[in-house]
Amino acid sequence: MAKLTYLIEYKVCKKCQFKVVKFEDYCKKCLSMLDPSKKFIPYKSKKSMIFDNNENSYNFATFRIPRLNFNNYKVQKEYLLVTNFQFDQFQSLEHLTSYLICSNKFPLSCLIGELGWSIKRMPQIKRMIDSNLSLIPIATANIEDTSIFEVRETNGLELLYNPKFWTDLIRLYVVKQHPYLPIFNLKYFDLNLVPQALLVGIYCTGYSFWTKKSPELDHYMEQLAKRNISRVLFKPNISNLQALLLHCILFYSQCKVTEGRALLSHITRVSYLIGIHIQSGKFSSQVIYNRDLLYRKILFWQRNLNTVYKLVPSYELDVPKLIPNLYYDNWHELSKSTSAVLGLIENEVSVLSQLASLNVQYLDQSLLTLVFPVIKSQSDEEIEKMCWTRYNKLSKDFIKLSEEIKLLELRHSNCKKSSYLLQNLVDEKSLKIFYLDFYLVIFEFGRLNTSQLSTEFLDKTIEICDSILDMSFKSDLTEGAIEVSYLAGLTYMSMFTNLSEAKKLEIVSKLEILSKTFNDTLDKDNLFNYLIFNCGKKLINK
User: Of the residues 149, 292, 352, 503, which has the maximum number of CB atoms within 10 A of its CB?
Assistant: First the structure.
C-alpha cells in the first residue's frame, strides 16, 4: 500500500505543507509544480520530466524502433520431427547415414531447401563435415566462395548517373522475374507513379540479372536495399509489402536464409494485420487484384511452413479460393507508353502477360495440392490413394502448362528471329524440375506414413527419380536442380532393400552416374549432402 500512495503523492516544500492546513497560498515554486497545465511523471528521476500541455507548445518523446518480435507457441508434432531431431546422438557419419536411409523415419527432402540450410549449420553437423573433409576430392572441392569479375577500367559507379541504367534494371525485372513470379499487375504500372519503396525493390531485383557487375556496384546496391528495408519495415501498406517481398525473394536467391526467413515472417504478420486475406468488394478492381495476388505469393513462399511436414500450421491459415478473374492476361499487359520506354515490342508484351497469367494460375494450384491433412487413423490404402490423387492432379497441371507454353510459342513463332526474348521464353528444364521435386515430396510423404508400400507406388517413385537422372546429364544443372538430384539419389537408396536383385543392380549403376555429376558440381553449399550420398553408396554396396 505504501508503494501505491507513493505513486500518487506530490512533494511541496515544508512551508507549504503548513500552508495547506491553514488554507493559505503556496509559494511560487510549488505553484509552478502544481500548475494544471503541467504534466508530471509519477516516478523518481534525476531531473523532473515536465511536458508542456499548452496548445502552441508540444514536446514529443522519441522512441527506439522495435526489433522483430517472435511469439513463442507450441508447435505440432510433425514440426518437431525435424527441428528437435537430435543429430548429436550419432557417433559417426556412417551411423547417421544408415539412419537417414534405412529407418524410413526422417524425410530426406528436409536435407534440401530451407530446412536443409538450417540442418547444415547445426554445430554437430559442422563438426561432422570438418572431420570428413578428407573424403572430398581435392580437384573438385570448390570450398571457397569466390566472386570473379571481369577486368574493367572503371568501377561501374558511373552507371548510377546514367538514367538508362535504371531503365534497364526495370526492364530486366519485367522480363526475367515478373513473368515467373508476379506480385503486382502491370496493367496500371506507370513509371511516374510507382511508389519509391517498390521502385527500389524492382531496381534491386533487376540488378540481380545484371551481367556487368563490379564489387563497388554490388556494395552500392546492397546498401540501397538495406536502407529501403529499414525505411518501410514498420510502415504497413500494399506497396511496402510488395517491396519487402521482392527483397525477401532476393535474400533467398543469395542464400541469405536467416534474413529471408525473418523478413518473410514479418511480411506474413503484417499482411494479416492490414487484412489482405479478407476479400472485399469495397475496393477498386486494381486494389482487389493486387491484394489477392500478393496474399497468394506470400502463402507460396510460406509453403515450407504450412505443407507436407508441418501439417497443421501454428498460425491461422486461410487458404484462398481460386478466382478466375486473377488469371486474365490483360492484368499483366504493359501500356504502350511504358513498353516503349522499356524497349519492348507489342509481341513481347503480349507473350510476357500471357506467361505471367499462366504461372499465377498454376502456382496457386500447386500450393493447394501440397496441403495435406493430419494423419490420425488412416489406413495404408487411404494414404496411398491420397498421394495418388495429388500426384495425378499435379501431373495433369504440368501437362496443361507445358501445352499452353508450346501454343504460346507457336503463336509468336514468326517473331522469334527478331526477338531474343521470344527465343529464350521458358526454361523447360527448370519447369520440369519444379514439378518433379513436388512429385518426390508427395510420394515421400506416403512412404513415411505407411507401414508397407505397394509395388506400384515404389515403381512410380523410381520412375520419377529416373526422370531427374535423365535431366542431370543432358545439360548444365542449376542450383535447384542439383539439390533435387541429391534428393533423387538418396530416394534410390532409401528404397534399396524393397527392390529385387535386378532392380538393385540398375540402381547401383544410376548412382554411379549421379556420383560423377556431383563430383563436377561440388561446392560448399552441398558438402553435407555429398558426404551423405557417398557414404550411403558405400553402405548399399556392402
Answer: 352
Is 96 a member of any domain? no
Q: How many domains does the chain have?
A: 3
92: left (phi over 0), alpha (psi -120 to 50) or beta: beta
Amino acid at 318: D
Q: Report whether pLDDT(174) > 50.
A: yes
What is the structure's pLDDT at 375? 73
Q: Is residue 129 part of a domain?
A: no
Instruction: Give the containing element (helix H, strand E) for 105.
Output: none
Give the per-residue SS3 of 480-493: HHHHHHHHHHHHHH
C-alpha cell at position 364? 496457386
- Please report the pLDDT score of residue 144 as a whole number: 44
Assess whether 431 and 357 both reside in one domain. Answer: no
For residue 515, being part of any structural domain is answered with yes
Distance CA 363, CA 348 (A): 22
The helix/strand/coil state of 142 is strand
**Residue 538's domain spans which residues?**
376-416+425-542
Judged against a pLDDT cut of 80, whether residue 20 lies above it is answered with no
Q: Residues 483, 526: contact at Cβ < 8 Å?
A: yes
40 forms beta bridges with 50
Burial of residue 520 (number of CB atoms within 10 Å: 0-12, 13-18, 19+): exposed
**180 plus 281 within the same structural domain:** yes
Q: Which three cell numbers stand for residue 127?
A: 563438426
Q: Is 36's pLDDT higher than 70? A: no
CB–CB of 523/143 below 8 Å?
yes
pTM score, two decimals?
0.71
CB 293 within 8 A of CB 182: yes
Note the pLDDT of residue 199.
93
Q: Phi and psi of 52, rounded to 5°? A: -70, 135
Average pLDDT rounded to a whole number, residues 228-241: 90
Q: Is 47 helix (H, G, I), strand (E, B) or coil?
A: coil
The mean pLDDT value for 190-195 works out to 89
Nearest to 81 by CA among 424, 445, 414: 445
Q: How many CA atoms lie within 13 A of 203 on its CB side?
A: 24
Smallest Cα–Cα separation from 424: which of 338, 355, 339? 355
Q: How far apart are the first and last CA of the chain?
A: 78
Same structural domain, 355 and 392? no
Provide CB contacts within 8 A for 394, sequence distance 6+. 366, 369, 435, 438, 439, 442
Note whether residue 115 is domain-resident: no
Average pLDDT, integer, range 530-534: 88
